[in-house]
């Protein structure tokens, strides 16, 4: 064999052998254009089946190339950082979208592959408007901490995630709360009451609240409903009753009057407040008036705009419209002058003198400051009074016996608290000392030194009216028996010593010391001592003297006035088994609407300094009457 022919033959065999070696189903190293591949990317035939050689995942029908061989995708294929095994993005979407949705920027076929939405083959950004439940949403595009609230039927975890404000624990689906479903839900402040929803009921006393509108009455300092707005504060609001704080209760508690109906309120039950009005309740009224008028207590304007059914517009002349400087003018010259502060009694004084004939009235026209400070504190409203007893004008009986002064060692006992600078600025009295007790202590006390017209305005604002003489007499067991006076013409012929009513027995008892625990707070003179019942707020260590360790309160007679309900013996019941009214017999004489009338005032009961007020019987029909002896309580109709 020649050499050239041998070389040619060897080359042909080699070529044949190389051809055999190069004939597997898929080349492990395919040309870029797929030339020579029998399956997979670039081949003219179908994708490679499992077991065939492969270079790329997409060479395989299973879209998974394990090493160099097509294989079914296993669990590891969906965590290998590649797009394979039917995924639309790296280890997400497509075949695994049920467990792994694709995030923003990953591939997708449609929005079911994405946490967000599929836009042009790529997953878009997540949002609360993408039609998907994502981020921390409790349902599609709602709930969670940042999305909007969910509608009824949507999934929820908390009440705040629902438009209706109610996500029941059982269903975890938003539903519309009802005011009769027995649970606190939606915007309710308590179970089935309060809130802002249509049809919701207001809450009864004692239920939780966040605003006055949640309650039948008002929402107090402790976010609890009270029946009357005057009991919103703590002191004087829920401090009535015994010394034992645990047994004290709302000072606005009101009791139905058995076997009594009011002819002017047919079909309604008559209620009378269990306790006398406290200084704290009047402060709530003043604060409400001030808040509504930029800090100015426009009580007169408010009352004129909200006149109740039983109201005489002439009373408004005695109401304050500012802290000080509200001036009222009245005459003692014109008999029966319409609209006078003294209507209907004082201008008739010369024809109906009191029992002390040496006292008289100076005729003329008078101006008085009925600003709030003077109305509730150390100024009487009777400059026309003079006396033949040797006291300088104005009448000593009006300035002393009415006992409202706060001057040094005056023994006045007004209970409405003003700080000393306020009193001094309003009155111009350089020696005024103000109250030696704190406002918190004073607010708990029964209110006195308040014009009768202001008591009436307070009760109207508080949802009732001033108690009438008729209902007091019913509680007391019968009417007051008056002995006509030969020197005083009707209708001013009051007797100075009315007969005690049956349930008022003991109402005029004097001090009895610790041995007489039933002693009432009803000393006939304001300067007399009765420490066992009236030295409030501090009980004394002995029977006849205040504690020597306490501060000197000798100038501040308000220690004589108790908070309502502190004297257990002072209770009146119509039915023995019922709850009774406190302090009807003593503590303070009480202003009432005069029996059978609506335009004039009167008083009932006994109380401190009750003997000193008899010289002013005419004035007690007027809205400007005030004194340390006089308190009041409200009545209501339901």
Keywords:
9% strand, 19 strands, disordered N terminus, three-stranded mixed sheet, elongated, little secondary structure, 638 residues, single chain
Q: What would the principal axes of the Cα set say about the shape? A: elongated
Mean pLDDT across all residues, rounded? 78
Strand content: 5-15%
The helicity comes to: 10-25%
Cross-sheet strand order for the largest sheet: 7-8-19-13
Measured between the Cα atoms of the first and last residue, the distance is: 138 Å
Low-confidence stretches: 1-34, 342-358, 488-497, 539-548
H/E element sequence: HEEEEEEEEHHEEEHEHHHHEHHEEEEEE
Largest sheet: 4 strands, antiparallel
Query: Using DSSP, what is the number of strands?
Result: 19
Structure in words:
- The chain has 638 residues and is largely without helices or strands.
- Among the domains are: 24-72, no CATH class; 279-637, no CATH class.
- It contains ten helices and 19 strands.
- The strands form eight sheets. Strands 7-8-19-13 form a four-stranded antiparallel beta sheet.
- A hairpin with a 2-residue loop joins strand 3 and strand 4 (122-123).
- It is elongated, with a radius of gyration of 45 Å.
- 46% of the residues are buried.
List the helices and strands and how they pair.
Layout (H helix, E strand, L loop, with lengths): L2 H19 L43 E2 L2 E2 L47 E2 L2 E2 L94 E2 L5 E2 L27 E3 L13 E4 L5 H13 L7 H7 L21 E5 L28 E2 L3 E5 L2 H4 L9 E2 L9 H6 L18 H8 L11 H5 L8 H10 L3 E2 L2 H8 L54 H4 L36 E2 L8 E2 L6 E5 L7 E4 L25 E3 L1 E4 L1
Parallel strand pairs: 16-18
Antiparallel strand pairs: 1-2, 3-4, 5-6, 7-8, 8-19, 9-11, 10-12, 13-19, 14-15, 16-17
